[in-house]
Amino acid sequence: MKPTVTDADFLLGYLNPDFFAGGSMAIDMAAARGAMARVADAANLTVQQLAWGIHDVVNENMASAARVHIAERGKDPRRYALLCTGGGGPLHAYYVAKKLNLKRIVCPSSAGVASAMGLLIAPAKVDRVATVAQRLDTLDWPEFEATFGRLEADARRIVGETGLDPATARIDRIADVRYVGQAFEVVVDLPPGPYDAGSLPALMAAFEAAYVEKFTRTPPAVSVEIINVRVSVAAPVPGGELGIRADARTAAEPIKGYRRMYFPEWGEHRAAPVFDRYAMAAGDRFEGPGVVEERESTLVIGPGASFRVSETGNLVVDLP
User: Fold this and answer.
1) Which of 210, 138, 146, 200 is closest to 174 using CA atoms?
2) Which residues belong to CATH 3.30.1490 in the chain?
3) What average pLDDT is seen over the chain?
4) Can you say whether residue 267 is alpha, beta or left, with left for phi > 0 and alpha for psi between -120 and 50 degrees?
5) Which residues in 56-94 are b (16+ Cβ under 10 Å) and which e?
6) Can you tell me the distance from the alpha carbon of 269 to that of 86, in angstroms, rounded to the nearest whole number?
7) Which of 170, 175, 171 is nearest to 136 (CA)?
8) CATH 3.30.1490 assigned to 123-235
9) What is the mean pLDDT of residues 274-294?
10) Is 60 helix (H, G, I), strand (E, B) or coil?
11) CB atoms < 10 A from the CB of 290, how many?
12) What are the tens digits of pLDDT across the range 120-140?
């Protein structure tokens, strides 16, 4: 079985040219290196320095986007782990995590097809929205509840037409709420209905909690208005429960060979292990550096890191 061909094959030299011999895709490594050499010469760099620079720019772009979202939410990235999915996610995760000062990476099984798997097992979901544009303290409560009722009935009808049982559906009520005079709303998860005038304190509390989470404080003595109300109805797909467990111990060795690899900490190519993910069992622990290969993706583990196989089959990488 040939591992997946990724951009690491070209940019980092994780793989030797003879790796491709006999594969389903013919790769001309000499031509690839020649194309890189022309740019490297113009930049006064070695081919591997240029290749790593390209890879590092890609990683920095991803890390920069993450920093924006983290800062917007006032979070400390050091408290979180990086979940990597997609065919290229495990390839970039290690050095993106380092840029964000994260200390843990979680790589699920079959990361390269996680989106397709999620599509197959995700609940059927129907969303509906209506505009009400009323102040909360002068709300027409019967009409407010009736609006939610109409949205929920329509969403349930669509769920039923897909062949799923609407009775098993979960209903979430949501609203776009703001202080009077503001230009943007906060999306608020509302408590379950039905609503009447006695629901005012609960709805205000839900809005204030969402507002504080986003902006850290609320303005004093300002009226609140609800712009839109939303309903999300989700029904589970039969057989969609995903019970992933780590593979049982096999006769195969987890380390299937060694390959010359380039890591910036080394500044040169050295031999490092290539791990076979399908030969790993729950509880296995290994030291980096190296790469873990599976059909859909390649996980890179840098020098000084360690990783283990969890009971659910996830690879958990701890950075130094």
Assistant:
1) 210
2) 123-235
3) 86
4) left
5) eebbeebbeebeeeeeeeeeebeeeebebbbbbbbbbbb
6) 27
7) 175
8) yes
9) 93
10) helix
11) 24
12) 777 889 999 999 999 999 999
